Amino acid sequence: MRVKVKQIKSGGEKNAFLGKEVTVKGWIRTVRNQKTFSFVELNDGSSLTSLQIVVDQKLPNYAELISDLNTGASIAATGKIVEGVDKKQLEMHADSLEIIGKCDPETYPLQKKRHSFEFLRTIAHLRPRTNTLGAVARIRNALAYATHQFFQDRGFLYVHTPIITTSDCEGAGQLFQVTTLNVDNLPKTKEGKIDYSKDFFQKPAYLTVSGQLEGEIYASAVSDIYTFGPTFRAENSNTARHLAEFWMIEPEMAFADINDNMDNVEAYLKFVFQYVLDNCREDMLFFNKYISPGVLDTLQKIVGTPFERASYTYAVRILEKSGENFQFPIKWGMDLQSEHERYLVEKFFDKPVIITDYPKDIKAFYMKENNDGKTVAAMDVLVPKVGELVGGSQREDRLDILEEKLERQGLPKDNYWWYLELRKYGSIPHAGYGVGFERLIRFVTGMENIRDVIPFPRYPGSAEF
Ligand code: 4AD
């Protein structure tokens, strides 16, 4: 029976596998040849640590094996699990070993030395075999699982919103177009414009930037929902925080206001952090030691401390009085830049902070206008190192004001007719937010670059794998 290395390693002192004969399968990390035997480190991705296999010369096929026992080769080994010399680690004494797939050590790109993350991006088909990318994959999986658990436990329905859309949720024009028209020979109308009646959807269509608008439809029918899917933004930002394709978690709550929204996001983030602390100890110790010293403490501290909540207007006052020499001097009405967010969260508050009530002119059309006529019930959650992790708001539920806002932002009312009708037929106060999943992983692991926390990053000039 094949068992995973994690099962063998996680048994503690009274290990269920000790003295038992099992089969393991995986890839060789390293081989050390001694006089009468070889040590083979086998990793199957189930845990950070590998299993040491002692391969004795007495194995009948040892002579043939030895030249193929190379880093990167896939093998199956069967043998008894025993205590290692130091009694701390379990190891296997192989009774049989089979090479499943050979690996040419001369050309295999993953050498024992440390590779840069930039280099590893060029071999995205092999990089999950490294310690760091393997650990990221397990943390990513744990965060996805914890996300579903959090919302499911609270009665939220998981709704699948479309990937192809004809409306721009954020109104920011950062859309990738989807078409079946021949772009080398576009059909034209009499007026010389592109004739979209010949296109697949008979109108311009795009990859979605957010599932929110459709999420609101379901929240207006089945109460609390969440989406968790890929979103796409054609913003040309070559930064460590932006991807062209990223995953977003978007809960939408019926009969809820901005305070419910803040309470929910704080509970959500603390829940998933605690989940990782409880269930991903080995990988988190690795990140804490090699990638981002202190990251464990940070998470631990956050889980036990209330988030700060501050209005945009107050935040601007703090920034104006900070005496910092910002590259973009701050003024009321401006969007907060990354440097401002980081000052607030890292220097001033020194804990996650939820900034609310932003000027209406810098926020999306769907956000609920406050009584002051100047601000909207928006909220951004800022965390150390990452800056903005979550964006959300209470939604505008008044038809006339929403129509006015669409017009003011130059968005065609016709495209949003169904969204407007939600305000006509049984409108409700509702609120929601979007968590950038990769920013969440980046925060939890302390990884520097967002491109290294998604298996196959898409950014300007890159869609190879
Ligand atoms: O603040 P954003 O644009 O909000 C929305 O899309 C809303 N529709 C969400 C909602 O209320 N349902 O994006 C939400 C989050 C950001 O806070 C950020 O973490 C992440 O999505 N994000 C990105 N992550 C990676 N690459 C990008 N280009 C991102 N743009 C936004």
UniProtKB/TrEMBL annotation:
Catalytic activity: tRNA(Asn) + L-asparagine + ATP = L-asparaginyl-tRNA(Asn) + AMP + diphosphate + H(+)
UniProt keyword terms in alphabetical order: Aminoacyl-tRNA synthetase, ATP-binding, Cytoplasm, Ligase, Nucleotide-binding, Protein biosynthesis
Any single Gene Ontology cellular-component annotation: cytoplasm
GO BP terms in the entry: asparaginyl-tRNA aminoacylation
Keyword Endoplasmic reticulum found: no
EC number: 6.1.1.22
Compartment(s) of residence: Cytoplasm
Coiled coil: none
Domain Aminoacyl-transfer RNA synthetases class-II family profile: 138-455
GO molecular function, one term: nucleic acid binding
InterPro entries in the record: Aa-tRNA-synt_II, aa-tRNA-synth_II, aa-tRNA-synth_II/BPL/LPL, Asn-tRNA-ligase, Asp/Asn-tRNA-synth_IIb, NA-bd_OB-fold, NA-bd_OB_tRNA
Top-level enzyme category: ligase
HAMAP family tied to this protein: Asn_tRNA_synth (MF_00534)
Subunit structure of this chain's protein: Homodimer.
Name recorded for this polypeptide: Asparagine--tRNA ligase
Lineage, uppermost ranks: Bacteria, Pseudomonadati, Chlamydiota, Chlamydiia, Parachlamydiales
